[in-house]
């Protein structure tokens, strides 16, 4: 009788253990799976499917990510889906938690994340981050009204300047560009934390004198301002651009061509950061090689899906890359003779 009771208890205990284990192996690979813990499948290098962190559903990152996911699914035979997020910063954090496999991000944000600086200072460095490729330029645009007396970056001293949202990538871009010219935020007359739309409105009514904007040119908010008020964009000289890129290698040179905006009749030299496709480092080399190869061998299809894909080129895939490449991407670039 005692043996039977003991046996029954053992069976019950085993059953409960299996039940708990089964509940713990969640299948949700999105941003809200239980306790924010990666599933077993995500921890491995070759998951059955991959998730790409993108951006808001109305933005470029989301549509571009959807195009990449479509190509991976159809051409690489890897089931891929996209996850909408708020921005590049969040994308780095979900890579860290292994809640996604790939992500779109600005190259400067990836650099800050890997070092645990700027907006990642409190949360710490993200160590499982590797780059697959640079995709397209996000241009640093210092916008002023067409009739403004501001002609150079030095002229920003004492002026009212919008520097992006607080603790944002644009704020860091503004600080770094000014730094190269020996200017601090405290040298400005006033700093305003404004997004694209707000900055454009404030330039329109004259409540600010200039605005830093980081986005592919042309951007709608600046285009509208060019039509209603007229704009100029403050350029960088060659020597300061060189110094900037040497100190912060995620920047690349970028001209803003005549005709980019209505009434914009003179080419201006500035810099850009690259939108990059990055991966969590745990992904298997063979899988990342396969995905990298698939991406670059299907660019014609990508261009039909998203306009920014027109900028994606194999020969510029390593521009603005300041972090370590994933070994799978390295293998593909070596085959193609592409060197940083």
Terminal residue distance: 75 Å
Number of helices: 12
> How would the global form be characterised?
globular
Strand count, sense and closure of the main sheet? 10 strands, mixed
Taking pLDDT < 50 over at least 5 consecutive residues as the criterion, the unreliable ranges are 1-37
Helix content: 25-40%
Note down, in words, how this protein is organized.
With about 350 residues, this protein is an alpha/beta fold. Helices cover about 40% and strands about 20% of the residues. The chain contains 12 helices and 10 strands. It has helices at about 1-25, 40-45, 60-75, 90-95, 105-115, 170-180, 195-205, 220-230, 240-245, 285-295, 300-305, 325-335; strands at about 50-55, 80-85, 100-105, 130-145, 160, 190, 210-215, 230-235, 250-255, 270-280. Strands 1, 2, 3, 4, 5, 6, 7, 8, 9 and 10 form a 10-stranded mixed sheet that branches. Helix 7 packs parallel to helix 8 and helix 10 crosses helix 12 (about 325-335). It is globular.
Task: Please write out the topology.
Layout: H1 2-24, H2 40-43, E1 49-53, H3 60-75, E2 79-83, H4 88-96, E3 102-106, H5 107-115, E4 129-145, E5 160-162, H6 169-180, E6 190-192, H7 196-205, E7 210-215, H8 220-228, E8 231-233, H9 238-247, E9 251-256, E10 268-280, H10 285-296, H11 299-305, H12 327-336
Parallel strand pairs: 1-2, 1-3, 5-6, 5-7
Antiparallel strand pairs: 3-10, 4-7, 4-8, 4-10, 9-10
List keywords for this structure.
39% helix, disordered N terminus, 10 strands, 12 helices, 19% strand, alpha/beta, 340 residues, ten-stranded mixed β-sheet, globular
């Amino acid at each position: 009788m005692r043996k039977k009771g003991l046996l029954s208890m053992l069976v019950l205990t085993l059953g409960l253990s299996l039940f708990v284990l089964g509940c713990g192996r969640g299948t949700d690979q999105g941003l809200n799976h239980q306790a924010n813990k990666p599933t077993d499948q995500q921890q491995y290098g070759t998951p059955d499917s991959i998730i790409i962190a993108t951006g808001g559903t109305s933005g470029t990152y989301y549509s571009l990510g959807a195009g990449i996911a479509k190509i991976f699914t159809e051409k690489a035979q890897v089931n891929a889906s996209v996850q909408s997020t708020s921005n590049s910063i969040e994308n780095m954090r979900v890579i860290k938690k292994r809640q996604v496999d790939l992500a779109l991000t600005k190259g400067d944000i990836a650099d800050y994340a890997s070092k645990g600086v700027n907006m990642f200072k409190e949360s710490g460095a993200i160590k499982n981050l590797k780059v697959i490729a640079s995709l397209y330029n996000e241009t640093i645009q210092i916008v002023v009204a067409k009739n403004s007396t501001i002609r150079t970056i030095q002229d920003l001293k004492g002026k009212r300047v919008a520097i992006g949202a607080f603790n944002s990538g644009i704020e860091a871009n503004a600080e770094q560009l000014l730094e190269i010219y020996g200017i601090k935020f405290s040298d400005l007359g006033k700093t305003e934390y404004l997004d694209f739309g707000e900055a454009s409105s404030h330039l329109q009514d004259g409540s600010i004198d200039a605005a830093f904007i980081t986005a592919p040119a042309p951007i709608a908010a600046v285009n509208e301002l060019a039509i209603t008020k007229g704009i100029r964009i403050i350029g960088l000289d060659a020597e300061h651009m060189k110094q900037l890129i040497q100190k912060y290698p995620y920047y690349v040179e970028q001209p803003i061509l005549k005709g980019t905006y209505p009434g914009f009749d003179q080419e201006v030299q500035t810099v850009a950061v690259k939108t990059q496709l990055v991966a969590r480092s745990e992904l298997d080399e063979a899988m990342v090689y396969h995905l990298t190869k698939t991406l670059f061998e299907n660019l014609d299809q990508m261009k039909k899906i998203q306009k920014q894909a027109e900028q994606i080129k194999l020969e510029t895939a390593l521009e603005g890359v300041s972090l370590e490449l994933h070994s799978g991407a390295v293998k593909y670039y070596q085959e193609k003779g592409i060197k940083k």
